[in-house]
Prior knowledge:
The protein has helices at residues 2-23, 35-42, 46-58, 77-101, 104-123, 126-144, 147-159, 161-168, 173-189, 193-211, and strands at 32-33, 62-65, 69-72. It is mainly alpha-helical. It has 2 domains: 2-72, Winged helix-like DNA-binding domain superfamily/Winged helix DNA-binding domain (Arc Repressor Mutant, subunit A); 77-211, GntR ligand-binding domain-like (Four Helix Bundle (Hemerythrin (Met), subunit A), Up-down Bundle). Strand 2 (62-65) and strand 3 form a beta hairpin. It is elongated, with a radius of gyration of 19 Å. InterPro entries: GntR_C, TF_FadR/GntR_C, Tscrpt_reg_HTH_GntR, WH-like_DNA-bd_sf, WH_DNA-bd_sf.
Amino acid sequence: MTTTSTAGSANQDVANLVRQAILTGRYAPHQRLIEADISDQFGASRAAVRNALLTLSSEGLVERMPNKGARVRSVTVDEAIEIAEVRMGLEALCARKAAEVADEDDIAQLLRLRADMVAAAESGNHLAYSELKSAVHQSVQQISGHRTAVVLLERLRAQSARHQFRLALHPGRGLDSVHEHAAIIDAVLARDPDAAESAMRVHLAGVLEVLRTLD
């Protein structure tokens, strides 16, 4: 029992490390993922690496090629648009539920995130701002308590991470994004489910609009 649990934990640890390497661009789209190299890099067993790649394949981050091993999956712009369309429905649901159930601790957390996000945007700290806006989405999802939506959204977020970075660099998008995220937070703080759902839809409609201009 203990051995099985330990093996499962090791597999998950390696999956987390490889996932992070993909999301941060350390592993590029179409890059071959060689089990021996990953094993050496992270000090993991070949079995743990193999299982981790299977996990990431099920998440859509890795694709396995017959007789050629695995590589980082490249998500097209068309796929990213479809992902954003699905996110709109799920995240709007989470925003509505978050506004319905947010308690005082949740409100305090969102207030801190709002202040930090605005400060990062005003100071031109793009990395901090990108991390904070992601934190806003994740906080709203966690507050909602909708476990199924949270699991699905995490997978969708991972698959579209590269395009999210391109969105952040789109001219004028940063300022629009600050106002949109602030509106989502303000609606949850006001405990207004209709406004929270609407604000999330407006934000993701903006994301879709920019995605449709990308090559």
